[in-house]
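can u pls check wat happens w/ heme C
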Amino acid sequence: MKFSNGLLAILLTSGVLMTGCAIGDDDDDKRRGGSLDVAPVTDVAYGEECADCHMAYQPGFLPARSWQKMMGSLDDHFGENAELESDVQQRLTQYLTENAADNSNYKRSRGMMKSLSYDETPLRITETRYFIRKHDELPRRVVEDNPEVVSFSRCEVCHTQADKGSYDEHQVTIPGFGKWDD
Ligand code: HEC
Ligand code: HEC
């Protein structure tokens, strides 16, 4: 892959800054994945380019083959055009595949991989058996028919720590309904 030197310098610098933050904010246990569900997003460019229309989903929620397929068809991304400059597109594809569910040891990544058969290449986290099983106690009225939620794709609306990679059910608050308590 090719970079202009300037871009590479920026990416390296921001990468270093991000790592610095992660160490400052999290205890050792969390960094090892002990209490986190999925590896947090560490790539600054990914967090910016892929978070215009929805949160930057953690790469550990889908297998590498899914990210490859998705990144190869950004001109028709769920009915939207999400195309990127080709060097950015290539670099983000690399980030996503290297940190995909099949390359991660975090518990949700392992759970996702266990539930997929080898010939499945889901493009939506929300359509996987793993996701559906985790959310099958939620009635329509709290999600689709709830004007403050509308779509399961908006993880961060209910999972208050989603941006940190924490999806613990005890941190869930459903807008209009309150804290999840099952
Ligand atoms: C122009 C807006 C836009 C941009 C930019 C965009 N997306 Fe999306 N994305 C969407 C829409 C719309 C959906 C479907 C959401 C829904 O149905 O509620 C979606 C859905 C997704 C989903 C599936 C969510 C689910 O339901 O499980 C993933 C994964 C995803 N996008 C990844 C990306 C990645 C990676 C990038 C950056 C390369 C990106 N998106 C950039 C609009 C966008
Ligand atoms: C409408 C609110 C809502 C949205 C939106 C939502 N979730 Fe959830 N999620 C929940 C609730 C409630 C639970 C706990 C369900 C239970 O215990 O039966 C849960 C459970 C989970 C769990 C298992 C956590 C545990 O402690 O067992 C994961 C992982 C998860 N969600 C990921 C996601 C992801 C990723 C998204 C977005 C693609 C998402 N969720 C969107 C409400 C939501």
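The longest strand covers residues 173-174.
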